[in-house]
Amino acid sequence: FHIISKLINNDYICGVYKQFMIEIRIHEINDIFSKYALKADRLYFSAFPRIERHSLVELHGAASKDRADYLAFTDEGDGNPVPKFLGLAYVIVRGDVAFLLYFAIAQRLRNSGYGAAILDLLQKKYEGLDLVLLIESLEQKCNNMEIRKRRKQFYLANGMRETGLTQLTAG
User: Fold this and answer.
1) pLDDT tens digits, residue range 109-130?
2) Distance, CA of 131 to CA of 126 (rounded, Å)
3) pTM of the full predicted structure?
4) What is the DSSP letter of 50?
């Protein structure tokens, strides 16, 4: 695992924010018996609509064969005796591209700074590669436009940039 300490408010001052220190650790999920597999799988099902999900057999199979990185994140700072599960990422690396296929933070921890800290950690983990992800279009009418706008703003505010490329999908 890799360790990074970062302030919740995105400043780097000894990793302390008031009396609250975070220590984010990355845990690789290589099979369904990995320590954080069940929590990551549950978050995966709750965070992504069915139409966007691959089967768990595919996810775990690719990760077990080193064709993808299925990652869980925990906070072990602030003297926590039990690590706090934060979220998941699923990354496929091909050539000089790291494709962030899935990224989710536990519902109760969203808007608390963990997403920014983990995205920063992912950018460091895949340094030297182009970290790429897809977001929903802001040009289509939908019932969750505000969420889409906030999601895009989050990624832009955390070092991602628009490529100008669009992926068309059926349905």
Assistant:
1) 998 889 999 998 999 899 899 8
2) 7
3) 0.82
4) G
